[in-house]
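Check my protein:
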Amino acid sequence: MAERSELPSLALLASPAERAQEAAAYLRETADWVPLEEADLAIVLGGDGFMLQTLHRMLENGRVIPAYGMNLGTVGFLMNRWRPQAKLRDRLAKAKPIAVAPLTMTATTQSGESRQYAAINEVSLLRETRQTAKIEVSVNGKVRIAELACDGVLLATPAGSTAYNLSANGPILPLDSQTLALTPISPFRPRRWRGAILPDRSKVRFRVLDPEKRPVAAVADQQEVRDIAEVQIASDQTRQLTLLFDPGHSLDERIVSEQFVA
């Protein structure tokens, strides 16, 4: 008889919110838990924001493991339903993995300082003052828009296409589409440009025009860099993240469903 494979070791992470802490107290009595650094799989309790924090923590530590989230926040687009009566190990055994490749943002400030951050949802450029931003947009080394006058512009992954990108009237991208959404935020000129869908191998550069009069900040998920000169963005396929979803509750299905919400 073949030896039974060992069960994966689990780490339990919960947001500071009261509901998440109560759920964590309940789950601590149902399984043996290990620190995140020793785990094979992470159980994440909270909302989308806390899930993003957890995934970023994995990227920063250089050790990425699958994450299974349960929604004890608000929207919970990246999470499964909180069902305390269901056996957690059974849910994990049936869960569907979804691979998510983060973006790498390299931002150069007006003083010449360079900073690099990962973005799981999107990289966005936003005006810092009441003055409209003016941004040159290049894709794969070719200038596509010489001067975009706008409140900002963003590049979103499929996983992030239903977040800020959707609020800015950008397209919803299926997870397996291997595309990115390039979306303007309140564009003034060119007035009719509504964005573009790019292959995920594309390299995008934003160059800020007239930065002294029209300063711009860059944000990679929750990391902000101000007084930007230029930003370069590319998808990092070498650091793919894995999210786990219950059958019928996968991110693929939720992305399709979101397109039919009035």
The CA atoms of residues 37 and 63 lie 8 Å apart. The chain is about 15% helix and 40% strand.
